[in-house]
Design goal:
- The chain is α/β, with parallel strands linked by helices.
- It has eleven helices and six strands.
- The chain is 52% helix and 14% strand.
- It has a six-stranded parallel β-sheet with strand order 2-1-3-4-5-6, sandwiched between helices.
- β1, α1 and β2 form a beta-alpha-beta unit.
- α9 crosses α10.
- It is elongated.
- The termini are far apart.
Length: 206
């Protein structure tokens, strides 16, 4: 039996996906919000954790490395709960963060339900599974000029966080955050912080 944990902050959507999975004779599903995900991983000990990194509430979790911590919880056939990410080819930023968190599967969120079920089975068997339609997104992610930490800083800035707030969230000094913002502005070819956010949002980085 493949144990699946669905992480999404929309109760309606995760319940619908759980119903789809529960209809399969070889799967069972539990659900969780992002806030409770790590606790649920430890309790349910799933083989596969299905996450939507673009759902409301997931941004801060992915920036703080929550994806990696979820995948590192003791679970699964060889001690790891494998990640399967619902992704969008037009959003290379979340794709890159999922890759850095060692996600094993990537499903286009517009794929038919059968594709998700196939992906869960493949990932549960420790096989890499990537939708062909996400190839463009991975290509764009590889071309992104910003580092993981710079993306974290920019994502928080895009949500309206001040320099001190970003520093507290990432456990860095104000001066370090200012240095990151200067590097981001330079790498994106922006005029200032606001312009850097605009450019990055347009490219789907944050």
């Amino acid at each position: 039996m493949i144990r699946v944990l669905l992480v999404h902050d929309s109760c309606l959507l995760r319940s619908a996906l759980a119903a789809l999975i529960e209809a399969e004779p070889d799967m069972e599903a539990t659900t969780s919000s992002w806030r409770d995900a790590r606790t649920r991983v430890r309790a349910a000990r799933p083989h596969v954790c299905v996450v939507d990194t673009d759902c409301p509430g997931s941004g801060g979790a992915t920036r703080r490395g929550e994806l990696g911590r979820i995948s590192g919880e003791l679970s699964g056939k060889d001690g790891r709960c494998e990640l399967l990410v619902l992704a969008d080819a037009e959003r290379p930023g979340p794709l890159r963060r999922a890759h850095e968190a060692r996600a094993l599967g990537y499903i286009d969120r517009n794929a038919p339900p059968a594709r998700l079920l196939d992906g869960i089975r493949r990932v549960a068997d420790k096989e890499r599974f990537i939708d062909d339609s996400l190839g463009y997104g991975f290509l764009q992610a590889a071309r992104m000029p910003l580092t993981e930490r710079e993306l974290s800083v920019l994502s928080l800035a895009a949500e309206g966080a001040s320099i001190p707030e970003i520093a507290r969230s990432l456990h860095l000094s104000n001066g370090t955050i200012r240095n990151y913002m200067a590097a981001i502005t330079r790498k994106t070819g922006a005029r200032n912080r606001v312009d850097a956010i605009r450019i990055s949002q347009g490219e789907g980085w944050v």
